[in-house]
Amino acid sequence: MRWDSLTDDADGAGDVRAGGPAALFGAGAVVTRTIDTPEFRGITFHEVRARSLVNKVPGASRMPFEWTVNPYRGCSHACVYCFARRTHAYLDLDTGLGFDSQIVVKTNAPELLRRELAAPRWTGAHIAMGTNVDCYQRAEGRYRLMPGIIEALRDRANPFSILTKGTLILRDLPLLREAAEVTDVGISVSVGFTDTSLWRTVEPGTPSPAARLDAVRTLTDAGIECGVLMAPVIPFLGDSPEQLRDTVRAVAESGATSVTPLVLHLRPGAREWFTAWLGEHHPHLVERYERMYAGGSYAPTWYQRQITRQVHRLAAEFGIGPGGRGASRRAGAVPPPPAGAAGAAAAGPTQLTLL
Question: What is the secondary structure of 142-197 as a DSSP string?
């Protein structure tokens, strides 16, 4: 792997190799572990001490926020369509099974975030989490990075949002409630469909859709408003009128405050892996997908609009409104940023984004 080109020199000066990427980790900071327990069997953890944590979202992104935090790289959810797969190629890690089983853990994430939030140049902008890989994947059960991250955001009254497929978020419900007393907290759970046979094949490492919707109910009952990102809607496999109706009905019954559909997009890295899966499980659809995605990573605009209209119509029928872009819960006044916070954070590493 390319750990050497991504670390500082031994003296910690942080010099970057000519023409190479900025250092991501400190020298000698990569520890590789395998854990022989049933829940982690077959997974390798690469523990690193990151040099930065708050990432700048590329300017061309469609997302309504500029900054993200990602304590992990790779994801044991093993979603066959995951757009973040190509991020593993940067470390010379496999973007297929390697992405599912070689997990990079930024063990110093909470302390690093505290330092970056306290920097005079940080203005207290919204920070999004879970938009690259899931911060509540199984690894979080072992490393427990999110409590420290939420505490750091709470203590600075820094607005944030979390998108997850993981029910482990319920462990941190008390901290989320505390944060919501002082700043904007937006929570969304991703549930693209309720078809259990489809779930078992395309999202094999995730909690079931029903378990995720139960988590939505628990969050909303606790006073934390929670929306559902209905993602992805998978063409020809999860987009029938009956499937859409069943999913929106279940979302409404969960007490979600909003539902926002997002059609499957296939970027390089994810596209190859998904196509291989499709050829094995649904070979009759390969040609249809080639036609549908001939124009690039996204399904045709007419198809996306069709799905959006159907979901919004169903949402209205079941009494749940479409989600606003970037909506979050305003639970209390946000204190002004610390004195001297006059500029934006210095540009750090950029990341891929959900859209």
Answer: HH--HHHHHHHHHHTT--EEEEES-GGGGGGHHHHHHHHTTSEEEEEEE-----HH
Nearest Cα neighbor of 28 from 10, 15, 42 is: 10
Print burial letters for 225-255: b (CB count within 10 Å at least 16), e (below 16).
Answer: bbbbbbbbbbbebbbeeebbbbbbbbbbebb
Q: In what order do the strands lie in the sheet with 102-106?
A: 31-34, 44-48, 102-106, 72-73
Kindly report the backbone phi and psi dihedral angles of residue 262, in degrees, each rounded to the nearest multiple of 5, phi listed first: -145, 115
User: Is there a contact between 320 and 311 (Cβ–Cβ < 8 Å)?
Assistant: no
- The answer to whether the peptide bond before residue 232 is cis (omega within 30 degrees of 0) is yes
> What is the chain's alpha carbon radius of gyration, rounded to the nearest angstrom?
20
- Cα distance between residue 138 and residue 329, in whole Å: 26
Q: Measured between alpha carbons, how far is 204 from 201 in angstroms, rounded to an integer?
A: 6
Q: Which two tokens stand for residue 187?
A: 């929570």
pLDDT tens digits, residue range 22-55?
445 554 556 777 766 677 888 999 999 999 999 9
Interval 266-318: pLDDT, tens:
999 899 999 999 999 999 999 999 999 999 999 999 999 999 999 999 999 99
Structure tokens belonging to residue 278: 């499709």
How far apart, in Å, are the Cα atoms of 329 and each of 185, 225, 353? 5, 7, 22
Handedness of CA 221, 163, 76, 347 (dihedral sign): negative
What distances in angstroms separate CA 226 from CA 3, 6, 154, 214, 300, one per listed residue? Answer: 38, 37, 18, 11, 29
pLDDT tens, 166-207?
999 999 999 999 999 999 999 999 999 999 999 999 999 999
Q: How many angstroms separate the CA atoms of 224 and 216, rounded? A: 9
Pairing of strands 102-106, 72-73: antiparallel
Query: Tokens standing for 69?
Result: 């935090």
